[in-house]
Design brief:
nine-stranded mixed beta sheet; six-stranded antiparallel beta sheet; 2 domains; VC0802-like; Carbamate kinase
Length: about 425
């Protein structure tokens, strides 16, 4: 039995015409002799009645201090609604189907509400459904704890679901009755033609993002951490760790796209792969009086499952930049970490953004790339309020008001 896990984003199921296109992708896979396991996101985005944003609004407008456990219970509903709808759409077309919640599909998580991590997978129900020839639909973004509490996997968590299911099926050599299992590369369907060299919404008119034909695992992990809409960061890390190959495609036109895996770098040696950006960061400074303190703060914030960057800013302090989250009060978390340590940091929210240059071509050549990138930003009169580097990336804090200009000039100069 050849199985393919196909993950469909919210846009793919937000309207009846889009659902029909998504159904066509599933039926095409079956026509090719594959058995699809479809991971479904909540329908659409803000403004759509069953999107996660709108579901949360229904409670927050009444009582904004909802407990994390109840918030996760509420947020899980969007994926369940869309999963049941798609399973029954395929049923109406003559395909025997079953809809499973994340917990029913066997995803066991820790109890960290809002950003849970998968501890193990118990795929018995999923395997039985495949054995019975059913087209399987799994609600993304969610799992269950060992004591049967519903948890969510963080923004973009349906990617995490899809990577985890691909891995466990790949690790299962045979179905319960002995039939051999083979697994195709994971397919991620979006509304764009693969992974782009920059977020098109972050570019000025006249500069167009390009589709990246292939990404290495390291590029995918780095881009996801730095704000690119490639894959959820946790999902990208698991894919790299487990060697899960991924194809990112346009659900309307699945030809082309981007392949992620153990592939040769896609860019020429003189070109970067992508420019990533993160808007409206939370930023604060910590004095260097106790050098160990900065490490402790970074570790504590990471234990809170926040994406945090230590930024060199040229002053006798360490600057921290923290990515905001949709459904958590990040400012409150930061203050909760700082106050017991007697730190009264000046925390600003939204004034600064981060733009990043990413690519295998930066590896072992960061100094030269930094000089070029800083020159490009200076020429565009974009002030830099700090920088950080990793193995294949360089990041710069810039004014939020200049973020689009910064992304555009770096893209034009470095994505050649």
């Amino acid at each position: 039995m050849k199985v393919v896990v196909q993950k469909f984003g919210g846009t793919c199921v937000e309207s009846e015409p889009n659902k029909l296109v998504t159904a066509e992708r599933l039926m095409e896979a079956r026509d090719r002799g594959l058995h699809p396991v479809a991971v479904i996101s909540a329908m659409g985005r803000e403004g759509q009645p069953y999107s996660t944003v709108e579901l949360v609004k229904t409670v927050l407008e009444v009582y904004p201090e909802i407990e994390p456990r109840e918030l996760d219970l509420l947020m899980s509903c969007g994926e369940i609604i869309s999963t049941v709808a798609m399973a029954n759409l395929l049923q109406s077309k003559g395909y025997d189907s079953i809809a499973l919640s994340g917990g029913q599909a066997g995803l066991i998580t820790d109890g960290y509400y809002g950003h849970a991590r998968i501890l193990k997978i118990e795929p018995a129900a999923l395997l039985r459904a495949l054995q019975d020839g059913l087209m399987v639909f799994v609600a993304g973004f969610q799992g269950n704890t060992t004591d049967h509490q519903i948890t969510t996997l963080g923004a973009g968590g349906s990617d995490y679901t899809a990577v985890a299911l691909t891995w466990i099926i790949n690790e299962t050599p045979r179905l319960p009755f002995g039939e051999k299992l083979e697994v195709e590369p994971l397919q991620i369907f979006k509304e764009v033609d693969g992974v782009m060299s920059a977020n098109p919404k972050s570019l000025e008119a006249g500069e167009a993002a390009r589709t990246i034909p292939q990404l290495t695992y390291d590029e995918c992990v780095s881009m996801s951490r730095l704000g690119a809409e490639v894959l959820q960061h946790q999902a990208a890390q698991v894919a790299r760790e487990r060697g899960i190959e991924i194809e990112v495609r346009d659900f309307r036109d699945p030809g082309g796209g981007t392949r992620v895996g153990a592939v040769a770098p896609s860019a020429a040696a003189e070109a970067a792969t992508a420019i990533a950006d993160q808007p409206k960061l939370l930023v604060f400074d910590v004095a260097h009086a106790n050098p160990r303190l900065t490490l402790q703060i970074a570790e504590r914030l990471e234990r809170e499952r926040l994406t945090v960057f230590q930024v060199a800013c040229g002053a006798p302090c360490t600057r921290f930049a923290v990515r905001p989250l949709k459904y958590r009060n990040v400012s409150a978390v930061v203050h909760r970490v700082l106050e017991p340590r007697g730190i009264k940091a000046d925390v600003s929210v939204g004034d600064l953004a981060m733009v990043s240059v990413v690519g295998e071509s930066l590896r072992d050549h960061l100094e030269a790339w930094d000089k070029e990138a800083q020159g490009v930003l200076a020429k565009a009169k974009v002030s830099v309020h700090g920088s950080s580097e990793e193995a294949i990336s360089l990041s710069y804090l810039v004014p939020e008001a200049d973020r689009t200009k910064a992304v555009t000039c770096l893209h034009k100069a470095l994505i050649r």
